Amino acid sequence: MTESKALKYGRAVVKLSGESLAGDRGFGIEPPVIEGLTREIEKVYAAGVRLGVVVGGGNIVRGTVASSQGMDRGERRLHGDARHRHQRPRTPGYAGAQRDRDPRDERDPHGGARRALHPAPGGTGNPYFSTDTAAVLRAIEIEADVILKATKVDGVYTADPETHPDAEFIPRISYLEVMTRELGVMDAAAVSLCKENDLPVIVLNIRRPGAILSALKGDQIGTIVEKA
Fold first, then answer.
1. C-alpha torsion 79→83→88→90, nearest 10
2. 34: part of which helix (H) or strand (E)?
């Protein structure tokens, strides 16, 4: 019997796009999708990874789209809700303003058992900053080794593969290239924070079973964004 591969990254934040919760419908929440994602997170947790999960809201409303339709981004507020059995929600203030607790400590204060944190309901709590930025901020605060951007595609391409069938897959790219080529991996603020803190990003397809755990073991899964 062969031993399982050791983890390359022992502390991570997973950024789930809102669209990943919506399944093929593209909006709302699909219960079977939630169950599948929960099973994937359970595998990661069982492997001993210290894990944070941040969920986007693109399945409900997109800021850029809402703005184009007349909604004032300065007044819009999106509120998260995480009630899955292996998550404990935290407001943005948990990892920032509340200094009586260490955000790096994943022990559940209500029961003593370590759980996966859901550290950013409502994003950063500020307009004009996406949940990508919220995820990166929390990853930096808990001293994560990596941030995983879980999407519907296999990684980063030269163009949107859904609308450009000839788009080329990019297995590895630098932070600077992501920004200068405007590839839309994350918003500019999030990528800049990753660059300043040397925090690698792995963009992967959440629909591929076992993708998250494989990436955390260092397998070539998706696209890695790191320093040149």
1. 10
2. helix 31-46
**Please, which residues bridge with residue 226 across strands?**
174
Lowest model confidence (mean pLDDT) among 50-54, 67-71, 120-124: 67-71
pTM: 0.73
Cα distances (Å, whole numbers) of residue 46 to 43, 58, 86 = 5, 29, 11
Q: Are 213 and 150 in contact (CB under 8 A)?
A: no
Surface-to-core class of residue 32, CB atoms within 10 Å of its CB (0-12 exposed, 13-18 middle, 19+ buried): exposed
Q: Which among 91, 86, 95 has a CA at the least distance from the CA of 50? A: 86
Residue 107 Cα to chain centre, angstroms: 21
Residues in the chain: 228
- Predicted local distance difference test score (pLDDT) of residue 26: 61
138/123 Cα distance (integer angstroms): 10
Is residue 13 within 8 Å of residue 132, measured between CB atoms?
Answer: no
* Among 91, 93, 113, 117, CA closest to 104: 117
